[in-house]
Amino acid sequence: MSCCGKKRRTWQAEPPKPPHIQTRAPEQPPNPSRAVYFRYVGSTSLTVVGPVTRQVYTFPGSGSASATDPRDAPSIATVPNLVHINTL
Q1: C-alpha span between 17 and 50 (Å, rounded)
Q2: C-alpha–C-alpha distance, residues 75 and 51, integer Å
């Protein structure tokens, strides 16, 4: 029979390492000078979650507009009934 020597004792003495958890810093609201604006032209309300910032953008009804973070804008531009506008 072979013996593992001190390896087993050392292994048992080491506390288990917690899994590495990467946390994200809270996102800042869009800077008005850099924001990208969209107007909703649908007939109900619409809520969109930005895929990059995870920011929730709400359009309560037809004609409502919202400033969005430029990082989310390319994806938000693909949402039906949202039209890119220059400013609010």
Answers
A1: 34
A2: 7
Would 39 be classed as within a structural domain?
Answer: yes
Residue 54 phi/psi, 5° resolution? 65, 15
| 40 strand-pairing partners | 82
Please name which of 38, 33, 32, 28 lies closest in space to residue 76, comparing C-alpha atoms.
Answer: 38
pTM summary value: 0.62
Residues 34/54, Cβ–Cβ less than 8 Å: no
Encode pLDDT of 46-79 as tens digits: 999 999 999 999 999 999 999 999 999 999 999 9
Domain containing 46: what range?
34-88
* Rounded Cα gap, residues 67 and 31, in angstroms: 9
**Domain annotation covers residue 67:** yes
Query: What is the count of structural domains for the chain?
Result: 1
Helix (H, G, I), strand (E, B) or coil at 8: helix
